[in-house]
Amino acid sequence: MTHLVPRNWTRHQSYKFGSPNFIKLHTRLMVDDDYLNLTATQRAALHGFWLIYAMSGKSVPLDVEKINRKLALRTKMETWKELIAAGFLEEVDENEPTE
Question: Which of 26, 41, 58, 77 is deepest in the core (most CB within 10 A)?
């Protein structure tokens, strides 16, 4: 099964071990055209994904139903493929080490 990880996660987050109580949300996103071109649904999914990833500390299976339950959203596979295409998420093999 395909897994997802945030692109450049360690560059944007300062903690190295364990499950953090918070994640950094950089204000420069508000001047990033790739981010500004996302729909509200895509942004909600992305922010929720960042939280899921931070809590788990490992790649997240690309199981849309399971992610939707965790986020209380109704996304489609297309949403996740668009976030990958926009460069915010990366597909990885589940056995591949994360950043």
Answer: 41
